[in-house]
Amino acid sequence: MKILGVKILEVESLYNSHGLKYVILLTSDKMRATVLQALGYAFVASAVGSYLWLTDVHEALRDSQWGVHGAATRKTHRELTMPLAKSIVEVASEFKFFPTFAVFGLLGFFVKRWRNFIFCAWRVEGRLKDMAIMVGSSVADPANPKTVEQLYKVYRYMCACMALQYKVVLDGAIGADGNTALDSIERLGLLTEAEVLVLRPCGSRACDTVITWIGLCAIDGCRDGHLLAPLFPREMFFAELTKMRAQMMFFHGNNVYPISQHWLSLVTVAIDMWSLVLIVGAPFRLFCPPSMRLGLLAALQPWTSVATFFNLLFFWGTLTLCQQLQRPFENDCDTFNIDALIAGTEETIFASLRASFNTGAACGLAIDHATSKQTHVCPQAQPSNHRQRIRLQVEPPPHNPPAQDEQNHFEAFSGTYSAGYTADL
């Protein structure tokens, strides 16, 4: 889609397919069961209509044999079918608005709740990326191994708090149980054995503890000179940190979002009563008497089954949709890939925290550590009559990794992306 010639959003053509919408409905087990249930009750309604048709034909033949003519014929049709059809129309016209508006209100609630999961995850992602930029752009001396170690600790804690935040969603990867999740995170190199021992007694507050450690790392970095204290935006950093914790809390709180069980029960009962009116009333309201033009087709009363099926499907299908949206991570259609979100956030944190490792050589920046000011170093101009390709060789900063199990992870973090950068001048 383009607005003013600018491409703003592109949805895969597969999801634009009209036929795919039907495939999505039928691939869902709950929705498929709803479709079959509505179809079964529709056949029951048409069967009642067929019984009324046979009764009407039988009475017409009996009356013709006994010589009964005029208004006295077809007694069942006159005294049962027609009065019930009229009564059902009146009841339906008075009652149909409540279940219709109630079910759409319930659907709107669960759609909003489902979207909140996505928005909360995106806000957490944005806060982590913002904090990584603040820390990565305030590094005092990227060549100092203690500074690299402090940045790596921030990196570990940021990734660990994401793993703890989504441990229930990533049940198959790290385990939903607290102790199992901590063991898995330790094996990933995001936490040390000593840190896991501290976090075990915290229980469900382990993630909050790790978030606090991120703030402590920032304070220690400013105090020990690893970060440029006068330039580091402390207030903004901790504002983002607390906002991230709030969004993490809302993510889990949204899972048990308070919904009135009385309201949900009332809507369910209203839809059940409306469905009962449709199933019982449709054979009488949509009854088509015998005719020479329709012949035996009228005996099947197919319009009764079709109308009943679609009415039941819309109401029952909406309730089924609410049940699916209530648990967005249990189905493959209306969900989002939390693994891709975590991986993308980790890559951004990794890049932002290591940005200062190569900034001096790539951008010509130098830091005066005495005044905590950055100055731009202009390279000497080289006269040339053609485009000249300059290769900047960047060496990784020296470091002495700590004697921990995650030494390989630390070495990967403190290294450079490549052996050099290339620029066209």
How does this model look, in words?
- The chain is built from 16 helices and 6 strands.
- The chain has 425 residues and is mostly helical.
- The strands form 3 sheets. The protein has a two-stranded antiparallel sheet. A two-stranded antiparallel sheet has the order 3-4.
- The radius of gyration is 34 Å and the shape is rod-shaped.
- It starts with a strand and ends with a strand.
- Residues 1-11, 368-405 and 416-425 have low confidence and may be disordered.
Write the layout of secondary structure elements.
Blueprint: E1 2-3, E2 6-7, H1 18-27, H2 29-66, H3 75-95, H4 97-136, H5 145-165, H6 171-174, H7 178-187, H8 193-199, H9 206-224, H10 234-255, H11 261-285, H12 297-300, H13 302-326, H14 338-353, H15 356-363, E3 365-368, E4 373-376, E5 389-393, H16 407-414, E6 420-424
Antiparallel strand pairs: 1-2, 3-4, 5-6
Helix pairs in contact: 2-3, 2-11, 2-13, 3-11, 4-5, 4-10, 4-11, 4-13, 4-14, 5-9, 5-14, 9-10, 11-13
